[in-house]
Design a protein that fits this description.
Number of helices: 10
Helix content: 55-70%
Order of helices and strands: HHHHHHHHHH
Radius of gyration: 18 Å
Largest sheet: none
Length: about 220
């Protein structure tokens, strides 16, 4: 199958699978990650097919919406790609990216490591969508979806969370900035990722400054 047709088939599959998804993890999130991945690819010698497929399929079954089950997404992606007659080598690479790209997995040192330039490209694109103006909007959208407080001065951020604590957290949305979003700038892998993260990071810092001023009636 021609690469363009494969990508188009994948887009249609993902759109259908995510048509009722929460607003921060819907098709538009996938589309932004897909487009940012293509932007990062301009300065990286990564495999375009692997990057595009992984970007499109990375959140096909986000564990947050499946009782924390991390096996569903990789399995759905593998089954879909097998039906598209994609080579085993590409399928395994894409599945490995899906398994290893999330922030919460970086909190766990279980000795299982996987790395590739393609993973770094998609991971940066996904992390860029978690910061800046879109990142702020997504954080509060998910907080509302989970009926969390915006902010509670008596609940400090937990800066040394394990993966399990992170998954179980019900903390106010503002805490999420300190527990994840403000940490992402330093976790960027690629030159383009690092450059784009600088400005988006600063936007969040300015937002928090303004948030506290308004909260405290200043």
């Amino acid at each position: 199958m021609h690469k363009d047709q494969l990508v188009q088939n994948t887009i249609e599959f993902v759109k259908k699978e995510l048509e009722n998804a929460e607003g921060g993890h819907d098709w538009f999130h996938i589309e932004r990650v897909f487009n940012t991945s293509k932007l990062i690819l301009q300065t990286e010698e990564a495999d375009e097919t692997v990057v595009q497929l992984a970007a499109l399929l990375h959140d096909i079954a986000d564990p947050k919406f499946h009782d924390g089950d991390e096996s569903i997404g990789p399995n759905v992606a593998r089954t879909f790609l097998q039906k598209q007659a994609v080579s085993t080598e590409i399928i395994e690479h894409v599945v490995n990216i899906i398994k290893h790209m999330s922030f919460k997995n970086s909190l766990e040192n279980n000795g299982e490591t996987f790395s590739s330039l393609e993973l770094q490209v998609v991971q940066d694109a996904d992390r860029l969508d978690a910061i800046g103006a879109i990142g702020i909007a997504r954080a509060f959208n998910y907080g509302g979806f989970k009926n969390r407080e915006l902010y509670n001065p008596s609940i400090p951020p937990n800066l040394n969370m394990t993966k399990e604590e992170y998954k179980a957290s019900k903390a106010p949305t503002i805490n999420h900035f300190y527990e994840k979003l403000l940490l992402l700038k330093e976790k960027m892998n690629t030159v383009t990722g690092k450059k784009l993260a600088e400005q988006r990071h600063q936007f969040m810092v300015d937002f928090l400054d303004q948030f506290y001023k308004e909260w405290n009636g200043r």
